[in-house]
Write a structure and sequence with these properties.
about 150 residues; about 15% helix; 1 helix; 11 strands
């Protein structure tokens, strides 16, 4: 009975701890350039002491990635853009790694094929601090273009 109680308490503490560690908040916006084009903004607000990896990280941690759902309402124009990331040497991967702290906004230009387009997809990212990394996450998003 004691071991069952210990297991339940351990499980509860682990779950509560995981829920507290959400150091990245995502927000979304769209701005029409004209009747046929818009720019999608995907913003990460990152808690102090934490960071996410850039889109071009290779052979290392999980890079930030965007997968847009194909649709008859829109088409992608070019690749998703990111600002210039910071770079530091990572002792675990034994190489320079590109990352973002505090805040970063990614941009994707789209061609609007029909009215009332909703841009949807999945973003994947990994967040770390100087002591540990949280498991990579996938988040579904929908962004209305009005």
């Amino acid at each position: 009975m004691k071991s069952l109680l210990f297991f339940v308490v351990l499980l509860w503490c682990t779950t509560a701890s995981a829920q507290l560690h959400k150091p990245v908040k995502w927000s979304y916006a769209a701005k029409k350039i004209n009747k046929q084009e818009a720019v999608i903004y995907i913003k990460a607000t990152i808690a102090s002491g934490w960071y996410i990896y850039a889109m071009q990280t290779n052979n290392g941690p999980t890079k930030t990635r965007f997968s847009f759902t194909p649709s008859k309402y829109y088409g992608l124009i070019g690749k998703t853009l990111q600002p210039k990331p910071a770079v530091k040497y990572d002792k675990y991967f034994k190489k320079n790694i590109a990352f973002f702290e505090r805040e970063v906004t990614f941009k994707q230009k789209v061609k609007l094929l029909k009215n009332n387009a909703v841009i949807s997809g999945i973003l994947e990212f990994m967040t770390c601090n100087d002591k540990s990394c949280l498991p990579a996450e996938e988040i579904a998003f929908k962004i209305a273009v009005n």
